[in-house]
Structures are given as C-alpha cells and as structure tokens.
Amino acid sequence: MECKKALSEANGDVDAAIEILRKAGVAMAAKKAGRIAAEGLVAVKLSDDLKKGAIVEVNSETDFVAKNELFINYVNDVASQALATKAATQEEFLADKWLADPSKTVEDVRTEKVGVIHENIQIRRFATLESDGFVASYVHAGGRIGVLVAFDVKEVNDAVKKVGKNIAMQIAGMNPLFLKDSEVPEDFMAKEKEIIMAQIAETAGDKPLAIREKMSIGKLHKRMQEVCLVDQEYFLDDKLTVSKYLQQASKELGFPINVTGFIRWECGEGIEKKKNDFAAEVAEQMNK
C-alpha cells in the first residue's frame, strides 16, 4: 500500500518513489526513536575458517516483531556486517557501508527497516571474538541468548567442534561472569563478601567475628565456583567441573583444548521494559 502511494505521488517515477519511501522511513524512525525497544534478537556469525566470530543484539519493541522473518533476516545481516567491520565504536559501525548495498550505511538500512516494520528498531551492541585456535557459537531459544567462545587448540575437527558447542551451551545455561578466579576484579570480590557477611549476620550474628569470617571464606569460594566458568559444575555431568571436562576432552583428543575467552549476551538484559497500562491508553485516545 505504501509503495503504491509513493509511486502515485512520484507520478510513476520508481527512483523518486524510492526516495519518498526512504524519507518516510526517516520520519517514522524519528517518531519512534523514543519508544522502548527491549525485545528483539541476539545473533552470531562465524568466519569460514572459524577464527573469528561476531555477535550482535538488535532490539524491537515487541516479541511479535522479533519473530517476524523480515526482522530475523535483518538481524542476521547485521551479524554478517559485524563480522566484516573494522569499526571500534557503535558510531563507527552505524556509519559503515552496508555490505549488500554500499550506497547506504548501516544506519540508513536501520532507518528503512523502522519504516517498513513500523517499530523502533535499534542495533544495541556488537562485538567480535578472535582466536588462533577456533571460535564456537551457540544461540539459545531462537535468539534470546547468544554465545561466542574462543579456544586455544592446535587442530579443529568434528570432535573439537563438539567440545566447543558443549562449552558454549554451558555458558548459555549457567551464565558465568568470568573465565577463572584470577580474572575476578577485587571490587566484585569485596562486594560479594559484603553480601555474604550480611547474610551470615542474619543467621549467625551472635557468633564471634572471627568465626563469621571463617564462614564467609567457604561461602565466597562457593560463589566463585558459580561465577567462574572453569570452576562451574559441568551441565552434562555433575561429577565434573568444566575444567575437568576440558582435561578429559584433551586426553580423548590427544592434544590440549582450553577456553581463552567468551561473550554471552541475553536480549534485553539491563533494559527497563515499559509496563503498558491499557486502560490509561484507551482513556487517552478517547480524550483526544
């Protein structure tokens, strides 16, 4: 319908109609820019040699749009763009030439999609992960969670790829915050100890401080096992930690395989979602 209107307005001139549609998209994007976009998808893309991976989060206003094929294809295209980009910042990335049509920028195409889909669409973030070994990926729940994992390994075969997928699934499900305890920042450790000491005070506040301090050591150690990937209980075998699983896999492979880094994103995390008051919306419309 919009294409037909644009053609009519342009007196049948296709190029002029396209310009009209693009301008309409910009206007619609401006109108919708202030609306909260907390739904959407996380997508990943790997290079053919598996040495590099890209991850992106693209937000929409509704879950309905996030399941739309047009939106899904667009997000996958953004992931491909992120894999190829040399941009270091969000601003640089949005200014990149669009791979499928270098006459447009990434921002131009985003604006056009707002005009077509009729929702506020935002490329919230992008990142890449590289390795001399290989990078594995996993997407959970149709794009709700995305994971990239970098491995140090001398050879990549099907068995190695299976280990990679298992670790990526571990990260998706167990949500580690750090790779190992030596990477845990001191301020995070201090905050966790503060929380633990407060919990102990609630249940054992009558005990001497020295005893409460000893109790906190064990609880803090358990907390570190929860947030550090290599110390987590392996999700496919609760008799193993992730570290033990990797040691076991290394023996079976005949060469070492180790995780060197990972990225885990969950769509909408950290975004405060708007709670719709439908009665108020109806009343507002009636008073217009």
Topology:
Blueprint: H1 2-9, H2 14-32, E1 39-46, E2 52-60, H3 63-66, H4 69-84, H5 90-95, E3 97-98, E4 101-105, H6 106-117, E5 122-130, E6 134-140, E7 145-153, H7 158-174, H8 186-204, H9 209-227, H10 242-253, E8 257-266, H11 278-286
Antiparallel strand pairs: 1-2, 2-5, 3-4, 6-7, 7-8
Helix pairs in contact: 1-2, 2-6, 7-10, 8-9
Please tell me about this protein's structure.
- The protein is an alpha+beta fold and 288 residues long.
- Among the domains are: 35-130, Tetrahydropterin Synthase, Chain A, CATH 3.30.479.20; 186-224.
- It contains eleven helices and eight strands.
- It has helices at 2-9, 14-32, 63-66, 69-84, 90-95, 106-117, 158-174, 186-204, 209-227, 242-253, 278-286, and strands at residues 39-46, 52-60, 97-98, 101-105, 122-130, 134-140, 145-153, 257-266.
- The chain has a three-stranded antiparallel sheet. Strands 6-7-8 form a three-stranded antiparallel sheet. A two-stranded antiparallel sheet has the order 3-4.
- α1 (2-9) crosses α2 and α2 crosses α6 (106-117).
- It starts with a helix and ends with a helix.
